[in-house]
Design goal:
The complex is a heterotrimer. Chain A is α/β, with parallel strands linked by helices. Chain A is 50% helix and 12% strand.
Chain lengths: 428, 296, 282
Amino acid sequence: MEVHMGKRTLLLVAMILVMATTLVFAQGQTDSAKPGKFVMWDKSEYTAGYNDLVKERFTAFAAAQGIEAEYVVVPPNDLKSKLLAAIEAKNTPDLVVTDDFLAKQFAGMGQLVDVGDIKKDLPFFDAAVNMSYVKNGEYVVPLAFLAPGLYFRQDKWDAAGLPLPETWEEYKQHAYKVNDPKNDFYALGLPMGASGGGDAEGMMRAIILSYGGALVDEDDNIVVNSPETLAALKFISSIYKEGLAPPSAITWDDMGNNNAYLAGTVGVAMNSGSIFSAMKNENPDLLSKTLIRPWPVGPAGRFTPSGGNVFVVFKNGKNADAAKLFIRDYFKKDFYENLVIKMGGMWQPVLEGMDQNDFWKDPVNAAWLASSKSTVPNTYPAVPDDKSTRAFSEQVSVKAVQKIVVNNMDPQQALNELEADLKRIYGK
Amino acid sequence: MKQKPNMLGYKNEKTLGRMLVLPIFLLVFVLMGYPFINTLYISLTNKRVGYEPEFIGFKNYVRLLADPTYWLVLKNTFVYMFLAVGMKLILGMILAITLNEKFPGRAIVRMLLLVPWALPGMVAAMTWKWMYNDTFGIINSLLKNIGLIEVSIPWLSSKHLTLYSVIIVNIWRGVPFFIFSLLGGLQTIDGQMYEAAKIDGANVLRRFWNITVPSIFPVISITTMLSAIWTFNDFENIYLITGGGPINSSSVIATYTYQIAFQYNEMAQAVSVAVSIMPILILMILFASKRIGKED
Amino acid sequence: MAGTSLKRQKFLKFFLIYTVIAIALFFTLFPIYWMIKSSITPDDIMYTPRPSLFPERITFAHYKALFTETSFMRYFFNSVYVATITMVISMIISILGSYSMTRLRFRGRVFIMRSIILSYLLPVAVLFIPMYILMSKIGLNNNKNSLLIVYLTFTVPYSCYMLISYFRAIPKSLEEAALIDGCTHLQTLIRIILPIASPGIAVVATFAFTLSWNEYLYALVLTTSPSQQTVTIGISTFQFSDQYIWGLIMSSSVISSIPAVTLYLLAQRYLISGLASGGVKQ
């Protein structure tokens, strides 16, 4: 009798397991037969009204096309994990707005739809075409530049009786005089944290480039281990070691330098227009003391690695065609021109003819615009492909500097390890 | 569940017993089963998100054992667990004993002391991150105002301090769990035992060791083991405050796994890190379940 | 002589108690005070190297923005839904299961009791992708109901552990008498064990609610639209890559803390009264 009972329970459990498994796989079949819902993931922006404006346009577009659609706002810090999970589950959105270096990593995975037709038809600036270039093919559409400037506390330099510095070395020399840690003021607000947006990595590459060094060249040769790069690494680490930057800069995420500058605790910050719009809204007094300048020059010249926002279209979404149509709609003058202006200097246009408005005649805005036209891709001089963008994403330069500053490693050894890191990424 | 009245037969008890634990069985072995098997398999491949996996055997594990960062992270995790759980136990015990005494305002104090546990981990992490900030955090500001320090302490940027800074936050959040659990245990102790001991001349410390601790030893063990397992796997706390940096000085297994999976997009390697510590967790779990499995 | 020494002992005892309490309260409550104070600090004095300890000026602008300009309240109600239902389901599963494991005899009892905790073997950081794939396959993609299932994987094991030890502490004599009188097992569970163990159950239920309410990683991946997302995701929407809007972060943190803390207060009273009315004495 006991055995009889035991068998029954076992049978019951087995039945449940079979049902569950069938359910799991059966549902999977019905899903793929659903009609194409157009899903867009947009970057969430602090600028008031940005997401509302885009959502309005999106909804109007969907209505005109007669399709079901959903507009989702994703905080940038969360985007990568969500997107990777979606890719694994073969359940991606159709259209995604994100940073260029993040988007490019997906090109190598074969996840993206070819957008060559859009890039041919629309008159993008050369710099924009470069910004969105990926070796694997035409997969990325530029959306806007996020060119960085250098925020400069003119009042502090005036008080110390110093002229405007031009070179990296001059900035450092002046920093000794302007630095005032006892009063919570550090001259140079240069970040060193391995952060999501890549503030620190971009800045360090700018310095390396302007000293004549480079990480990887156009032919994928790892050329980082050179005397020029070594000089650059020594220069960068000396700024932190000699206390010219706040100690917390070591773990700053992307908001670290923003907040430090807004709090009035650093004299220099290198950032996109987000600090600018924050000052306009929250601290006009600080704005009046601020000068916006181009990035410093090094022995080999001035380099401003920068990126921007881009569109990518995913293959595994349900309605890639709608996505491509919407991109064209987005760039129509009546919408795009005003959207960029609405971003108040944080964005610069990528399309010819969208920079003629009086807004850009204002000297500050003109400075941002000029900056956008002279930037180089983040991975320069290497070609932007999945390997170089991965190297950027892994923040290899930041790691090297961290080792020198935090671990007191010998700079040449840190440089050797940086070379090893790059070799690993490039599979050499 | 049909039961005939007056049927205390062994058979019915067995069926009922099995039915009642069926949901739990499904939860642990079926729902968790798929991810578990999947994870074990992935650790033997070179899977990256967006690419198809290829079987490579134990290469991931070999690479792991030779990686100094792995050992550093493992060490950090143990330090984190031992220090945090140790302090939580001590502080929790002190406060539980204190709260077991009757005094005016006890109800309100009990309420207030339990609040950190009720906060979302994210809220706690953000608040402490804000307080630790060396440019405009209140902690450094207070210390400077008192005159204890001149230059801000880099709570989150010094590789020597950063692990301890996040341990403090874990302790702050976790002490209420110990207080609550231990207090529940203390309140089941018969007060007469203390009276008898007092009459016999035992002092406070002896009463504690010989009566209190043995009586609530089961509660102490379970609470400590659970907390140890949770603390060992802690992710949010560290990820949100320091991200594991600088240079992995505050990185623990959970954040390291996440970093490899999503920053480097090496899912298989990340998974192998997680699997590699399973033996440790299993040992801890076995230890915990021996306490549970004991018949009273 | 004995009288004064006793009084002095009592005084010392209270002094010790209040000192410990004072220190504990300070360290416990200061961060919370700071969070609340920051949530009512105007933006222009929020960022400063020497923040003042006491509020100089207060503003409710952050709260106003939270309610009127963001979808935060929808996140809040989603969290209430998910946490409450998860709590109820985990309580039912755990109570029935724990009763079975402590009171009934069947083969596999010790096995299941020991294997529950296997749920904690893998960190969420690794689990969430396979879980996401699983939930997508059963059609629960971007649906807060997927959280109801997934959250059980960490609320149930904990609840069972605590309930098993609470149930064990209750002597079987009462139930045995009832069973002889003709009650079924389940009736003894409902009529005898539950009332006695209710303080413990209240505690465990509160913790189950709190664990669900506070969860971040699963919610992040398993839900995408604001109509499905929970309060922890809501707080993270105020962090942009460059700027953290501390005013909104702090105010949303305060609001997010209210339900769990309130539940706590209720469980607290229950705990005290339940145990005061006499636990179980041999």
